[in-house]
């Protein structure tokens, strides 16, 4: 190709990139999928790489945009908007049901009924009604806090503005999905990549008049806060919704037993293509509200519901390269760069190869022709390769023995719990020694469930890193904004917005902070346990001065794996420095103690042996609901040992020796009245 032609191709791409960017960042309308956008970007970057005469001030290597979500005020959800865990097979469903039955301590043949609701792939919204009037509408946001998009939601015909039915609760948040029907999407194809993008884009318009132009639909399926709701199960609730004037999914069904769930799933999957709305699975909710309440939630998903995802779409493509990505915990993940291919409406150019063992087991090589599978929002993966089509001189892929980023030795650890060697190879560096690990740690630090800094996405982390603006988490709070303002793609306003979002997050709960640190094996749930245990940041930090971490083992839910991970985190100097520096710039709120007005306030419990009609997990949540605490071993800290059938003799003896009060199930229940 001639130089002139190359320049012209390059400039066309830049023009397109500019257009997409403008729509996304200024008009709030994503006109293409993220994948397409990223692809265009990498095409431009690789052209620049190849031909060093190509230059543009609009190059993605220089520009950084960010979502102006300041348009909408943030409002807390009175009851968090949870997400759902996924099931992909009958086995997953059986396990889901088994866990419920165990928790409820029922017999294994106990029959459970579920509300089976096809899962519409749209944008969820929460509508607050007071005395029948629609007061406010919020987006999901991070589940805890959403954006006030009331005016836009009010333009949707399916959303009742006033409800006069006598049995409509005095106050209730009605939740459901905003979406676009496929038949309506046809006319919007030019502007958006898929119906979901179209719904999200139009819902986040600055101007409700713009939202009004798009035929958005709303289907209701659950509630958040309520006062005066008089139903005991989900199927009655769905019936009520229709009576109150909401649309509900016509394919909702009440079903008992896994076999019947599977039958319904297969039927709906066959119908899927002919439906006028996109569904990506079926949501199963335990029908009985009383059982739902007993089961409660883990982290941010309910124990009583699950999303059964539809099987994926597959396609055949060529593996162009195998790259090694390094995660925040140092894990080396091989990723296949494949010839871009459309799988179920999404352009796929990367597929995960999971880990070293997977590559070896399947003998996957660069140049192979592979079957790639994509299921819903899960990262596409390589299903199989065609060895017949392999060229004679193809070579086995050798996994790097040193970290491609920092050169440290890579290791496979021995897992003490499973007594097996890990399938994952890791960079053995610690703290912030490895650049790639550090970048990933920073991405985790600003992510939705961690600090959730508005507009501070992964791309910005990478960019600021490149310009050496950030290396450690604390640097985010000490940015020199005048330098950022000088970067291409940034202006006064966007810098102001960024400053504002960062300042807003300077007050943080201990729980979120611990999670944000990205300590291996410390997810949301464990961070919560640790925060409750330590209460204040200084107590948490003081742990590093202790020689003995045994104490942590008494926290119900924290095991050896977690303790040794915390220990290695706190024995790293760079990590301690991060803690000290963060303490200077943040206001870290003490953990909110369980309300201390409960019947079991200040009391600790441990169960040994089998109880009757109630599982360990439920006892634990009962104790916590009543301001008590459960611990995992007999020690001086224990107040009550609850004994069931066949208790562990050692525990009982030790408790007697320590003069701890020993009670049975009846006595325990009496304490709760
Ligand atoms: S219930 C605890 N019901 O799925 C219950 N969600 O991953 C969570 N969704 O953000 C919500 N159809 O956008 C529920 N019938 C349905 C649903 C549904 C679609 C979406 C919703 C939510 C996501 C959960």
Describe the structure.
Helix content is 34%, strand content 23%. The protein contains 23 helices and 26 strands. The chain binds 2-(butylsulfanyl)adenosine. The site of 2-(butylsulfanyl)adenosine has 15 residues, from strand 3, strand 8 and strand 13.
Summarize the structure.
This protein has 673 residues and is α+β, with helices and mostly antiparallel strands.
How is the secondary structure organized here?
Elements: H1 3-25, H2 34-50, E1 74-76, E2 86-87, H3 90-103, E3 113-120, E4 123-130, E5 133-139, E6 145-147, H4 150-154, E7 171-180, H5 182-185, H6 195-203, H7 208-212, E8 216-227, H8 234-243, E9 253-256, H9 258-271, E10 279-286, H10 289-295, E11 297-298, E12 301-302, E13 305-309, E14 313-326, E15 332-343, E16 346-352, H11 356-362, E17 369-374, E18 381-385, E19 410-415, E20 420-427, H12 435-446, H13 458-466, H14 481-485, H15 492-504, E21 507-509, H16 510-516, H17 524-534, H18 537-542, H19 560-570, H20 573-585, E22 587-589, E23 604-608, H21 616-625, E24 629-630, E25 640-643, H22 649-657, E26 661-664, H23 665-671
Parallel strand pairs: 2-13, 21-22, 23-24, 23-25, 25-26
Antiparallel strand pairs: 1-6, 3-9, 3-10, 4-5, 4-7, 7-8, 10-13, 11-12, 14-15, 14-17, 15-16, 17-18, 19-20
Helix pairs in contact: 1-2, 12-13, 16-17
The structure holds 2-(butylsulfanyl)adenosine.
């Amino acid at each position: 190709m001639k130089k002139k032609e190359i320049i012209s191709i390059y400039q066309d791409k830049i023009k397109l990139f500019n257009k997409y960017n403008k729509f996304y960042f200024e008009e709030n309308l994503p006109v293409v999928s993220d994948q397409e956008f990223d692809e265009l970007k990498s095409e431009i970057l690789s052209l620049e790489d190849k031909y060093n005469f190509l230059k543009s001030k609009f190059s993605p290597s220089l520009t950084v945009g960010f979502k102006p979500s300041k348009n909408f005020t943030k409002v807390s959800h009175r009851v968090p908007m949870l997400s759902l865990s996924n099931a992909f097979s009958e086995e997953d469903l059986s396990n889901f049901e088994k866990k419920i039955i165990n928790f409820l301590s029922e017999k294994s043949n106990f029959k459970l009924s579920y509300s089976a609701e096809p899962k519409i792939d749209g944008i969820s919204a929460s509508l607050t009604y007071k005395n029948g009037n629609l007061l406010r509408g919020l987006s999901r946001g991070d589940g805890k806090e959403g954006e006030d998009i009331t005016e836009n939601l009010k333009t949707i015909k399916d959303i009742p503005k006033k409800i006069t039915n006598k049995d409509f609760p005095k106050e209730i948040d009605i939740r459901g999905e905003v979406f676009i029907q496929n038949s309506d999407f046809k006319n919007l194809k030019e502007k958006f990549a898929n119906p979901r993008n179209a719904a999200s884009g139009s819902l986040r318009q600055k101007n409700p008049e713009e939202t009004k132009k798009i035929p958005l639909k709303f289907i209701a399926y659950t509630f958040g806060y309520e006062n005066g709701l008089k139903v005991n199960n989900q199927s009655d609730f769905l019936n009520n919704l229709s009576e109150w004037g909401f649309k509900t999914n016509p394919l909702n069904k009440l079903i008992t037993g896994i076999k019947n769930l599977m039958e319904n799933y297969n039927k709906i999957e066959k119908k899927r293509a002919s439906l006028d709305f996109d569904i990506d699975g079926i949501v199963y909710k335990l029908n009985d509200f009383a059982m739902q309440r007993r089961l409660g939630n883990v982290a941010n998903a309910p124990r009583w519901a699950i999303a059964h995802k539809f099987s994926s779409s597959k396609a055949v493509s060529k593996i162009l390269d195998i790259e090694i990505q390094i995660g925040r915990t140092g894990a080396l993940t091989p990723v296949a760069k494949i010839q871009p291919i459309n799988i179920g409406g999404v352009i796929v150019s990367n597929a995960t190869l999971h880990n070293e063992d997977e590559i070896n087991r399947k003998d996957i090589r660069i140049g192979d022709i592979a079957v790639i599978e994509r299921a819903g929002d899960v990262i596409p993966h390589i299903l199989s390769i065609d060895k017949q089509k392999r060229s004679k001189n193809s070579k086995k892929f050798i996994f790097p023995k040193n970290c491609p980023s920092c050169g440290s030795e890579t290791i496979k650890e021995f897992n003490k719990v499973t007594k097996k060697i890990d399938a994952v190879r890791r960079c053995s560096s610690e703290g912030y020694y490895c650049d790639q690990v550090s970048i990933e740690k920073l991405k985790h630090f600003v992510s939705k469930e961690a600090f959730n800094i508005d507009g501070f996405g992964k791309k910005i982390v990478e960019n600021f890193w490149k310009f050496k603006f950030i290396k450690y988490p604390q640097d985010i709070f000490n940015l020199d904004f005048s330098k950022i303002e000088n970067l291409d793609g940034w202006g006064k306003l966007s810098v102001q917005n960024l400053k504002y979002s960062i300042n807003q997050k300077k007050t943080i709960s201990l729980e979120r902070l611990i999670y944000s640190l990205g300590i291996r094996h410390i997810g949301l749930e464990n961070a919560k346990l640790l925060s409750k245990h330590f209460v204040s940041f200084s107590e948490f930090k003081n742990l590093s001065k202790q020689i003995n971490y045994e104490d942590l083992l008494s926290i119900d839910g924290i095991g050896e794996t977690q303790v040794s991970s915390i220990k290695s985190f706190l024995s790293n100097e760079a990590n301690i420095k991060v803690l000290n520096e963060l303490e200077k710039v943040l206001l870290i709120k003490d953990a909110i103690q369980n309300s201390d007005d409960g019947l079991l306030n200040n009391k600790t419990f441990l169960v040994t042996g089998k109880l009757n009609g109630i599982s360990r997990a439920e006892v634990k949540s009962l104790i916590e609901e009543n301001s008590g605490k459960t611990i995992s071993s007999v020690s001086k800290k224990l107040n009550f040992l609850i004994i069931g059938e066949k208790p562990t003799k050692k525990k009982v003896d030790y408790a007697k020796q320590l003069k701890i009060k020993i009670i049975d199930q009846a006595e325990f229940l009496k304490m709760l009245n």
